[in-house]
Amino acid sequence: MTSSTQATPLISAIVPAYNEHQGLTHAIQTIAETLEACTSNWEIIVVDDGSKDNTFVKVDQLAVLDSRIKGLALSRNFGKEAAMLAGLEYANGAAVIIIDADLQHPPSLIPEMIEQWQQGAQIVHAVKRSREEDSFQQKAAAYCINQLISRFGGINVQNSSDFKLLDREIVDIIVHQLPERERFFRGLTSWLGFNEYFLYFDVASRQGDESKWSFWSLLELAITALTSFTSLPLRIITLLGFATLTLGFFVIGDTLISLANGKAVSGFATIIISLLLIGSFIMISLGIIGEYIAKIYEEVKGRPHYLIKASVGINRTQPR
Question: What does each C-alpha distance from 220 to 80, 104, 194, 266, 290 come to in angstroms?
Answer without folding.
Answer: 12, 22, 28, 45, 14
